[in-house]
Amino acid sequence: MELDNKVFAEGKVGKVLLKFSVPTIISSLVAELYNMVDTLFLGRVIGAKGIDALIVAFPIQRLIIAASVMIAVGASTSAARSCGEGDYEAMKDTISSALSLIITIIIPTVIIIFLFKDNIIRALGASDAIFPYANDYITIVLMGAFFQSFIIVGSYIMMALGDTKIVLTSTSIGAICNVILDYLSVVVFSYGVKGAATSTVISQFISFMYTLKHFIRTKKAYNLSFKFNLKKVFWAQILSTGFTNFVIESEDGIVVAVLNNLLARHGGDIGITILGITSKISMFLYVTVIGISSSMQPIAAYNYGAGDYKRLKEVVKKTTIAVFISSIIVWILAAVFSEQMIGLFIKDQYIIEESAKAFRIMIAAFPMLSFYYVSLYYYQAVGRTKLAFVLSITEQILIVIPLSFIFLEVFNMGPMGVWISYPIGSTVVSLISIALLKEWKIRINLKIKKAAVVETA
């Protein structure tokens, strides 16, 4: 059985990495445009309340995305590793288990959120003024959760089998539709928050239909099964492998939820607005480093499964260089054009200036995160899930949130306490990652020497 992902073992590392990272970066950027476009139109038409409503809804949306990415990355990495080992039956079982997990995880999650929606919105920091807007948006957006989940999982699986175009195409179709529908519903017909949410769901459905069509072709080509399959050995591997990605994706929502409540007490709604705008802008930076780092994952997993440690070392080295250079470029651009980027979302000059100051502080140590993301996705690719999990929660959960609480509650620094917590967290976790990569380099060199001795003998 010939699989398209043989390029993981045969193609030039630089070209393979470029082939997978470019579509991933663009598709991730396009995926972020769903919420970004809603924020842009609502911010300029409704104002700060519209942005605040989306910020309150952000953790809920992030939870759905995080659960989907967990299944998607876990399945695609495990499938790629199985292909590297030549175990194609395990690859098939992994994929069918991933589809079954969408039903058993995503749908119940949506139902629970809907049942306790009012309490959740209040807990996320919504004031009486923001609550109606957030409630309308969340109620409608939840209807598209299944479509969004299948798009993510289906696209990642097809990418693991060598189809690099599907992720970009499917997300682009949805994002383009969302821009058009958002403009019509919010700007032309003045449907406000409900119009933005409805546009998002319709766009997700269109993208879902496109993804499903291509996935059915993949099913026939590789003789995959749509039968419900939850064999423990496979779903456990998927969840354990992808759990780090769940933390990475969901911790943004967790951090926003916690900081919303802190800022509501110390900075009022304007603090929430600034956090929301800076969070949106920072997505452009993180999409680049995460896109390249995550694209390394199936390549590293395949070569690790095949025991080609020399090629594995080359993959990690070139990925690190690519991520670091890219991070410096986007960091400089973001710092220079902060006001212009923020001005796309809101007209209030005071909020633009304060948001730009906060943003530049928050991304002060951004290039150092290159080492963090490379080490994070590498350890996940080779199955060291516990280490990857600890790394994934270190920056924001273990450093940013506690420091923000101390700076606000103990030292009464106001919103500035939140902003300076970010570069501190980035610096600490990056230094830890650099140390881990040095240790890894020593170990991988020993494996390469051992393999060379065996081959010679």
What does this structure look like?
The chain is an all-alpha fold and 457 residues long. The protein contains 17 helices and no strands.
Brief description of this entry?
The protein contains 17 helices and no strands. By secondary structure, it is mostly helical.
Keywords:
17 helices; mainly alpha; 457 residues; globular
Secondary structure topology:
Layout (H helix, E strand, L loop, with lengths): L6 H4 L2 H33 L2 H38 L2 H28 L1 H7 L7 H11 L3 H16 L4 H24 L3 H31 L9 H35 L1 H39 L2 H28 L1 H5 L6 H14 L6 H13 L3 H26 L4 H42 L1
Helix pairs in contact: 2-3, 2-8, 2-9, 2-11, 3-4, 3-6, 3-7, 3-10, 3-11, 4-7, 5-6, 6-9, 7-8, 7-9, 8-9, 10-11, 10-16, 11-12, 11-14, 11-15, 12-15, 14-17, 15-16, 15-17, 16-17
Helix content: over 70%
SS class: mainly alpha
Which regions are unreliable across 5 or more consecutive residues at pLDDT < 50? none
Question: Overall 3D geometry?
Answer: globular
Return the domain count. Answer: 1
- Cα end-to-end separation: 31 Å
Find the count of extended strands (DSSP E, 2+ residues).
0
The share of residues in extended strands comes to under 5%
Count of helical regions: 17
Radius of gyration: 22 Å
